[in-house]
Amino acid sequence: MPTRSNARLVYSTAGEQPEPRPAPAPASPAKGGVRIRLDRRASGRVVTVVTGLAGSASEVAALGRALRSACGAGGTVKDGALEIQGDHRDKVEAVLSARGLRSKRAGG
Length: 108
Fold this sequence. Notes:
alpha+beta; 5 strands; single chain
């Protein structure tokens, strides 16, 4: 079997194992950084949304628990964005700055 630098093994019966690929780099924060915005649902309810958080899913979930506890409200993590029920932008901004995370308000 000829060896080329850009060829990769697709299928072989020779028993050779392909070289393992390196693990992907951990997620880096979004270019815009951490953004806090207010979102109004179709039912008229208001939700504070925090996007651009770096870290694994478990780290984002732990931060979400801390923010929900500080705000005294419910919420969830959807697609890497934290959603907290109600308008809690001031409290969220204070908790994030206490943890050393810089954030900006987005939207109007």
